[in-house]
Protein: DUF4708 domain-containing protein
Amino acid sequence: MSEMLKVCALDLEICVTHLIHINQNKVVRSIAPVAAQKQLCRQAIKLFAHYGILASPERDRDSFVIVAHALSLKADFLDWLCKENLEIQNMYRADTQTIEKCLHYTVAVWFTSHCFYSVGKALVKGPLFLETDMETAK
Structure:
């Protein structure tokens, strides 16, 4: 018999999706826009984890989405947006598709920060990649 583990509880009525626009005019961002987009997403997840946000890059290189409680994003979040030259392009009610996408990306970022890496459909513990002895790695 299998058992389900409850990871989190979301109330769709009070969750809001923020579409964040990235100003690509900065020299560093214009050279590697996808890397900049993913870095900002990871940074948002790390900085505002205490708000319980979920985030994910969008297909275009100029934006990413954040799903959060409607009232949870405070002045420090708005200050971060200003500092990073980002702006909230759009706000709308969270839907299950956006939450699923953001949850998948946020969990992957969390695993990576704890030295687990996704290889295909498996998770591999990080220090294995740092082994110099190939016999140990086999």
